[in-house]
Amino acid sequence: MTLNEESAFQGSEGELILYKEFLSHSLDFKSTILKKNKSEEYCIYVYAWRSGATSDEHSDSFWERIYGPISLENAEMSQKIALEQLRIFSGELIDGRKTAKDIERLREISGDENAEYLAPLSFPVKQYVQGKTGEEKIPVSATTLVIANDLFYIEHGKNWSIGTQDDEKTIHCFRSYSSLEEAIHDVHKADCSCS
């Protein structure tokens, strides 16, 4: 999930101010944590983006609240619950087979503190291959799916691929590697040479 920094909104005593906001990878869902000003009470809400008719002067698109509030008195727990609820509603569930140690190692090697293992069947995955009539997209059975640094890393068979997501939420693989570490290293190397 993408984490926006704490907002600098000001409010009077008892008013709710925006504390944190998390967006789904698809950008179709968000969870917000509102904090009561001058108190340690946090309220969690989940929203879905609703697209409607648009014109030059008017848009029917908006964020619709679909869940909440959940009230808590612990900042750390409120963030955990907000992310959990966002994953449930957005369908971007984490891979329950991975341990905290696995996730910690992934975040360490990727350099992304929000890197996650996603459930392998969360999204359809396709790979471009050379076919008889040119390039074709074929489905890939992912055994492991990782999101880190705004890229997907997909384990399929004995290979890992890097991929990006299209508007239909399909992940398209575009490079193959022998390991996750090699794929992440190659991305970091490319980032460094561009700077």
Distance separating the two termini: 25 Å
Q: Detail the poorly predicted runs.
A: 1-13
Mean of pLDDT? 81
Structural class: alpha+beta
Helical residues, percent: 10-25%
Enumerate the strands of the largest sheet in spatial order, edge to edge or round the barrel.
6-9-10-11-12-7-8
Per DSSP, what share of the residues sits in E-state strands of 2 or more residues? 35-45%
- Output the number of helix runs: 3
Shape: globular
Helix-strand string: EEEEEHHEEEEEEEH
Biggest sheet details: 7 strands, mixed
Q: Find the count of extended strands (DSSP E, 2+ residues).
A: 12
Key features?
single chain, 195 residues, alpha+beta, seven-stranded mixed sheet, five-stranded antiparallel sheet, 12 strands, 22% helix, disordered N terminus
Explained architecture:
With 195 residues, the protein is of the alpha+beta class. 22% of the residues lie in helices and 41% in strands. It is built from 3 helices and 12 strands, in the order E-E-E-E-E-H-H-E-E-E-E-E-E-E-H. It has helices at residues 75-90, 100-110, 180-194; strands at residues 2-4, 16-23, 29-36, 42-50, 62-72, 116-118, 125-131, 134-139, 144-148, 151-156, 159-165, 171-177. The strands form 2 sheets. Strands 6-9-10-11-12-7-8 form a 7-stranded mixed sheet. Strands 1-2-3-4-5 form a 5-stranded antiparallel sheet, covered by helices on one side. A hairpin with a 5-residue loop joins strand 11 and strand 12 (171-177). The longest helix has 16 residues, at 75-90. The chain is globular.
